[in-house]
Amino acid sequence: FKAAAPERFFNCGVAEANMMSVASGMALSGLRPVVYTITPFTTYRCIEQIRVGVCYHKAPVVIVGTGSGLSYAELGPTHHSLEDLAMLRSIPGMRVYAPIDAKDVRRCLRDALDMVSKREPGLILNFGGHAMAAGLTIRQSDFDDFEHHFCEISTSLLDDEILQRRSVHDGSLGPDQFTIEIADRLMQEIWGQGFPQPLFYGEFEVLQQSLMKDKHLRLQLRPLLKNENLAPVLTGVWFNRTQTLPQHAFLAFRLVSDRFREEARIQLIIEAANDSLP
């Protein structure tokens, strides 16, 4: 970028907090700055400037971090970023994106519509909704024009790697963890708003399977454990799947509680199987 547009590139040196303040001032002057450095430096060292200079003033600054987590593990704790997402998400007005698959990218839909609205004023009459919604109102005569601009923006934001479906799981569950108490806690979104519900995996014996309403696969499953006496029999549902499973299947699932007529029971919501898993 520096070679292509040197007049738009500014190196603030080893002064990350100052860099964020410069970006805030540029944004409030009508520009659209992008701040870039490794994640621990663009977050921890700049948290006050992000909170006061950017978010408080609703300044349109794009903050990009690379080398997150333990990417720079050998350089020590000054280069580790393990709390950055929690810190940034606690600031009002901050939007944090760390997409890992197509499901995560859907959350960017509102921003894509916002970009269409800014590039083509008057094309979108209204859009919005709650944090996970992206409803909009356009004229019927503008359908084709909207489709063209939306596809153009989406293509610039996405690539083949992002669009490829991946199942990122949180490990397996032990026989004593298939409980109503754990399922209820998970359904209370204790992992934080905006993050996906935990996804678990395991190998199961398929005891029974049938179709519900000709479009959902209902299952009776038993986890394959070393001690079969500890393995509970569980109910599973795979929505919008009609193809049956083999007798033994490796499944990714979400643990939920199902209550009917004051009776609570465990249910597995199946998301992927066998070669669909990483």
Characterise this structure.
This protein has 278 residues and is an alpha+beta fold. It is built from 9 helices and 9 strands. It has helices at residues 16-28, 39-43, 47-55, 84-89, 102-106, 109-119, 143-157, 160-163, 180-187, and strands spanning 34-38, 62-66, 124-128, 135-138, 200-212, 216-223, 234-238, 248-260, 263-273. The strands form 3 sheets. Strands 5-6-7-9-8 form a 5-stranded mixed beta barrel. Strands 1-2 form a two-stranded parallel sheet. Helix 1 packs parallel to helix 3 and helix 6 (109-119) crosses helix 7 (143-157). The radius of gyration is 24 Å and the shape is globular. The model has no long low-confidence stretch (mean pLDDT 82).
What descriptive keywords fit this protein?
278 residues, alpha+beta, five-stranded mixed beta barrel, two-stranded parallel ribbon, 9 helices, 9 strands, globular
The tally of strands reads 9
Rounded to an integer, what's the Rg over CA atoms?
A: 24 Å
Note the beta-strand portion.
Answer: 15-25%
Shape: globular
Q: Regions with pLDDT < 50 over 5+ consecutive residues?
A: none
Largest sheet data: 5 strands, mixed, barrel
Topology order in helix (H) and strand (E) letters: HEHHEHHHEEHHHEEEEE
Give the strand order of the largest sheet, numbering strands 1, 2, ... along the chain.
5-6-7-9-8
How does the helix and strand content classify structurally?
Answer: alpha+beta
Per DSSP, the total helix count is 9
Helix content: 25-40%
